[in-house]
Amino acid sequence: MMSKDPSDAPGDIEAAQPDRLYLENLRVGDIFRSGEFLLERDELLAFASRYDPQPFHTDGTAAASSLFGGLAASGWQTASITMRLLVGSVPIAGGLIGLGAEISWPNPTRPGDRLRVESTLTEIRESASRPDRGIVTAESLTLNQDGQVVQRMSSQLMVFRCR
Amino acid sequence: MMSKDPSDAPGDIEAAQPDRLYLENLRVGDIFRSGEFLLERDELLAFASRYDPQPFHTDGTAAASSLFGGLAASGWQTASITMRLLVGSVPIAGGLIGLGAEISWPNPTRPGDRLRVESTLTEIRESASRPDRGIVTAESLTLNQDGQVVQRMSSQLMVFRCR
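Structure tokens for the assembled complex are given below, as produced in the milestone run.
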């Protein structure tokens, strides 16, 4: 039996990979839960200074008087951490190949947050033109240690059939 | 007159900031062009090993025999570079605060690619509940040095009125 919910230990984002899943192994409603990722302040600042250099992401003092009311991670770092957690928790054969996504950030990610991701498969379509693959839609919620949703994402993944 | 198209010199992602724009300064159809960002192989590999550790992003040999036919950047790195270029080219007063986005990656980003972003405003809505702000939709194309689209993004930005 395949483990679709590896229940990684907290902080363990290098959990042993469960068996790989092909298109025919997936069902609408399948749920995948990740381990955790601790976002340290230094990593938040380093990412922002390189990719999203705005005061509310790079400067605690300026952030305090901004709309965010304190230092907040770039949404793209939240998305990148989400990807890391998905790689460790959604064991698709051949890897996670995203075609596109819809994404929103209902709450900010803060320094010291421990993030985890819960993903639910909401649609599975076989490719009309390419019988060796399909497109799977996953709804992934990224949650902090208080259970607040910091990111909501619907993504389309390319998934192969077992050959 | 405000410069909405700063025509940054190639490679210059630290171009001088033009005047800041408020909601009443924006029009549907306004176009913003960024400078360039050169993605070196080392930065591609470092990002992937931290946030998207899959062989087609981290290992040139494995990538050659993958769907990508060679090393490809994580889509989230393409998104993060796009954000960096937007910060330098879309001078919204108070900063670029994204509420959400739709994103797709029609072509891979490769080591050594020089990326640039062209953004067009496609919708401007005043907030019904909060008269001090509005929501602006921007369509941003991220292009490589050959003019291929590596990312297509529609994003919702919160923009304040001048007070």
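The CA atoms of residues 52 and 71 of chain A lie 13 Å apart. Residues 23-38+73-160 of chain A form a domain with the Thiol Ester Dehydrase; Chain A fold (CATH 3.10.129.10). Further analysis is deferred to the final report.
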